[in-house]
Structures are given as C-alpha cells and as structure tokens.
Design a protein that fits this description.
This protein is α+β, with helices and mostly antiparallel strands and 96 residues long. It has a single domain, classed as RelE-like (YaeB-like fold, 2-Layer Sandwich). The protein has helices at 8-22, 26-42; strands spanning 3-6, 51-52, 61-66, 69-77, 80-88. Strands 1-5-4-3-2 form a five-stranded mixed β-sheet. Strand 4 (69-77) and strand 5 form a beta hairpin. Helix 1 runs antiparallel to helix 2. The chain is globular.
C-alpha cells in the first residue's frame, strides 16, 4: 500500500476547483471534490491505474481522469505517490 500525498499546488488546485463550481452550486462542488479525492485514494493500492501523461512521456508521471479533471501524479517508488496537479482537461498542461 503506497502513501499518497498532495503537493501544495494540488491542494490549491482543489480549492480553486471547489470555489469555481461553488459559485453555481456548493452541493455539486462538494460532490466533485469528494469524487476526486476518492479516485486519488484508489492510487494507494493501484499506482499504475493511470495512463502515462502524453506531455512528458515518462512512465513515472501518470494521470487519472475524474470527470473533466486530470489528476497528475508521480510514482516516487513502490511506497510513495505524489499528486502534482489537478487540471481541467481543457487547460494546457505546463510544467509540474
């Protein structure tokens, strides 16, 4: 079982996602954040469930999709995964 941690940038991404959606519906914003966090938790047992991020072509940098969002993560080793960023799929992904 791997330990999953979120970077400061990823935590900020979650806040921005929540704030943006909550401007229309706080209920839906909570639902989206919970769905993202549940998918992130699944990485504890299945770290290679995501696909390789095409922008980086590095087996250790992967993504899982949750609705319209891309959760970008790095497999540090068999016991550690770090969530780098959480992007809307329509945004251009630049640097981690």
């Amino acid at each position: 079982m791997a330990k999953v941690s979120l970077s400061a940038a990823a935590l900020n991404d979650l806040k921005l996602i929540f704030d943006f959606i909550a401007s229309d519906s706080e209920f839906y914003a909570e639902k989206v954040i919970i769905e993202i966090l549940n998918r992130i938790k699944s990485l504890e047992n299945h770290n290679k469930i995501g696909q390789i991020v095409r922008e980086f072509e590095n087996d250790a940098i992967r993504e899982i999709k949750v609705g319209s969002y891309r959760v970008i993560y790095r497999i540090e080793n068999d016991n550690e995964i770090s969530i780098a960023r959480i992007y809307h799929s329509k945004r251009l992904l630049i640097g981690l």
